[in-house]
Design a protein that fits this description.
Keywords: Membrane, Transmembrane, Transmembrane helix. This is ABC transporter permease. By secondary structure, the chain is mainly alpha-helical. The chain has one domain. The protein contains 12 helices and no strands. The two termini are 40 Å apart. The relative contact order is 0.12.
Length: 300
């Protein structure tokens, strides 16, 4: 038996090695495109872009009404926009979180990612950052449209004789505060939705699980708040807002950012803003830690 060595033209790679940062950045871009179905079939784009259109529609309608009535009271409060449309955001969470957290596990591609110069922490942070960006776009685009509509119509409102027209500086401050609230919503909602979806390798189960946690947490908190209010425990009812994501962030906006609270029936106690913010930080940090643990196990 003879042995022969064949020259198949193999040459060592002599180009620039882009390294870990480039891989992490590429993962972020890939995951962000995946959330909106870019680079995939047409059906993958229907849900995210339809929900984005639904989120924008009330803002566009409000600007259209403002152009006719020309009264500042017509404008939707920036900081409350996400809370008013929380069912749409919840559907986006349930539908798109499994795209990032479930598919890689179902098709067992996680070990392939870890064979490259990227660790499990980079892998999780790329997914988390992509989903945060997608949610921030979902909420910030309509709020930005509202603000641009106000700026375009402000002089017309003054000429129309409207009273209490906000100043540009004041309204811009409210807009920037609302963007900070949108970012906080995106961080909290992304972390808990990705964590739930990561434990459901099948997308259908992931969708059902995220929606179930959202609905059940709301129902349980509402029942607990009703019981507290019936016995005169209004402060206790306000503290229960810590246990459901939308009310948690709304508490930060109200008690730390000084915005009007959306859930007026159960106002968090005065001075509770730092506690609500700390709770947000704990939700994000603990969810990311558990996600790292989950994907490390999936990649083993």
């Amino acid at each position: 038996m003879s042995t022969a060595i064949h020259d198949i033209g193999y040459r060592h790679y002599e180009g620039t090695r882009l390294g870990r940062a480039h891989v992490a950045r590429s993962l972020y871009q890939y995951n962000l495109r995946s959330v909106f179905g870019l680079g995939r079939g047409g059906w993958a784009k229907v849900v995210p872009f339809a929900l984005l259109a639904i989120m924008i529609l009330p803002a566009a309608g409000d600007i259209a009404v403002l152009s006719f009535v020309r009264t500042p009271e017509t404008l939707i409060d920036y900081s409350m926009y996400a809370t008013y449309l929380q069912p749409v955001i919840a559907i986006f969470l349930a539908a798109q979180a499994p795209v990032l957290a479930s598919r890689d596990q179902r098709f067992r591609t996680v070990p392939l990612y870890f064979s490259r110069p990227v660790g499990v922490v980079d892998f999780v942070l790329a997914k988390f950052a992509a989903f945060v960006t997608a949610l921030l776009l979902l909420m910030a685009v309509p709020v930005t449209l509202l603000h641009l509509g106000f700026l375009a119509m402000r002089q017309a409102m003054i000429d129309h004789g409207a009273s209490n027209v906000p100043s540009v500086a004041g309204q811009t401050g409210d807009y920037l505060t609302a963007l900070a609230g949108c970012l906080l919503y995106a961080l909290v909602l992304s972390s808990f939705a990705l964590l739930i979806a990561a434990f459901m390798p099948r997308r259908g189960f992931g969708i059902a699980a995220v929606m179930a946690v959202y609905l059940i947490s709301n129902v349980v908190v509402l029942i607990a708040q009703g019981a507290a209010i019936s016995t005169g425990g209004y402060d206790l009812a306000g503290w229960f807002n810590l246990f459901t994501p939308f009310r948690l962030v709304d508490g930060v906006q109200a008690r730390l950012f000084g915005e009007e609270i959306a859930f007026r029936d159960t106002v968090p106690p005065a001075g509770s803003g730092p506690v609500f913010l700390l709770a947000c930080v704990l939700v994000v940090a603990s969810s990311l830690a558990l996600l790292v643990k989950r994907f490390r196990k999936a990649g083993a």
